[in-house]
Write a structure and sequence with these properties.
mainly alpha; 81% helix; rod-shaped
């Protein structure tokens, strides 16, 4: 008889803990970053884009030279 009567307060305590734990959770913040905008507007992004465009030009000229042969 003692076992069944001790389960009720224990279950009530567990339920109370779970309810307050749910309220205590902080809602997470999610940030969205537009990577294209960052690359286009940042100094480092502009430098990398210039390097990539230069590399693309050199690769295109090498390919066109190969096509001619």
């Amino acid at each position: 008889m003692w076992r069944s009567s001790s389960k009720i307060p224990l279950l009530a305590l567990l339920f109370t803990f779970l309810v307050f734990a749910g309220f205590a959770q902080e809602s997470g913040k999610i940030g969205i970053v537009n990577s294209n905008e960052v690359i286009q507007k940042s100094t480092e992004g502009k430098a990398v884009m210039a390097q990539l465009q230069e590399k693309d030009k050199s690769n295109s000229s090498r390919i066109s030279t190969m096509d001619e042969n």
